[in-house]
Write a structure and sequence with these properties.
This protein has 152 residues and is of the alpha+beta class. The chain has six helices and two strands.
């Protein structure tokens, strides 16, 4: 699955759901229930879910068809993948939102900025040690960074 090609996709995974605790009821002299295996597809993307689903099917429909062919009543050659996924969609009962409105691109850019700043501070720790915050800012300003690049 080419998940990395979708720049609005925060995460995606396939999970086989199987309840390994059904035998626990034998302690109470009850007969365990038998549940089927389920294949769950989970994901979180920026924007409209239907629009993302359409792009995912267009780009990765063949792979999705192979994966979902493990499910009952799914025939890759005879099943409309878009309709099938809509019929089997289950709305989320809970959602985690770290920072509403942050896109995947923003998260990656901020992570890169953090790494660059951390690297700069580590590389120049001796020069920055003991300086007041304003002095650190002056020492890390654009002209300072340019001159430090030339020194490297």
């Amino acid at each position: 699955m080419p998940f990395a090609e979708f720049e609005t996709l925060h995460f995606a995974r396939f999970v086989i759901l199987y309840d390994k605790t059904t035998e626990d009821v034998r302690v109470y002299e009850l007969t365990p229930r038998s549940y089927p295996l389920y294949l769950a597809s989970l994901g979180d993307a920026d924007g409209d879910a239907n629009a993302f689903g359409g792009k995912l099917i267009k780009r990765a429909g063949k792979g999705l068809g192979k994966i979902f062919s493990c499910c009952q009543k799914f025939a890759p050659d005879n099943t409309n993948l878009r309709d099938w996924t809509k019929q089997h969609d289950a709305p989320a009962i809970a959602a985690y939102v770290n920072w509403r409105g942050r896109t995947v691109r923003q998260i990656c850019e901020k992570a890169a900025l953090y790494d660059a700043l951390e690297s700069y501070v580590e590389k120049h720790a001796a020069r920055l040690h003991g300086l007041a915050p304003r002095e650190v800012m002056r020492n890390c300003g654009p002209s300072s960074v340019r001159s430090n690049r030339q020194d490297a």
